[in-house]
Amino acid sequence: MTPDPTIRAPFPTNGAAPSARVRLGAEAAALLVMVTWAANVVAVKAAIADVPPIVFAFARFGAAFLVLLALLRWREGSISLPRRDVIPIALLGLAGFGLYQDLWVSALGQTTAANSALLTAATPVSTILIAAAVGSDKLSPAKAIGAAVSFCGAVGIVAATHGFGLTGASGGDLMTLLATVLWACYVSFGAPVLQRHSPLRTATWAIGFGCLGMLPLALLEAPQFDVSHVSFGIVGLFAYCALVPAAAANVVLFAAIKVLGPTRVMLFQFLVPAFAVVMAWFFLGEAIVLGQVIGGLVIVAGILVARSHRLAQAVG
Hints:
- Helices cover about 75% and strands about 0% of the residues.
- By secondary structure, the chain is mainly alpha-helical.
- It has one domain.
């Protein structure tokens, strides 16, 4: 999809730049999304112990799609897409939800919840480069420095917990890294589409098309699904994963991107590993080491650097 050359980031509404209050609200919303995504890593890790991973992913995103479709009809009066945008949004959905979920949830079955979250910290770096390359956002020096600092924190966390080297890397880790590139493409290429559609309409149809990408593998996994393993706890996890991080969070995310631009929003994703590590320790009993704590603090420092207007003026 080729972005419209008239679209510039950040994304003003009604021809005016968003106010400081609106931008602060968008940043708070993005932070809340990251908390729900961190909890999602732990919830999905727990659920796929009893449900095949892609079956679970297809079911929760299918449910999210139906909920969002009903909400879209209620809020905006229609559910259709213009012909010109069907293929672009279908490709976005297949990359950002279909292929991404196929890889990510399968990888989560092979690695720890903490490690999965730590590896996804590479996503903002990919997003910065891809968004700048396609023209959907500007790469300012402050953003670049902040991303570099945060990425160093993420690398430090990985080094402290699992180390480096091809012999020690699991297939799950490699699939997780590939999934982060797909998500970065989804965010970067999806930003210009928001000029033509609301976040609700874009997220609804991206998720719907993404479900088509999950369907073939979900059908292959279906014979492995033992319904007797479904407990009230699994149902609760499914409801949370479908309605909060899959449905609501993706609409909120695109709304934040429309105000702040993809690069600034994705910088918040560096916080997901920090939140997820703590949640995985509390709920799953996964250990926390000092390197993870230090790396998490470095990640936060990088986000603060990227948000610093004084630094932007000093190096701009």
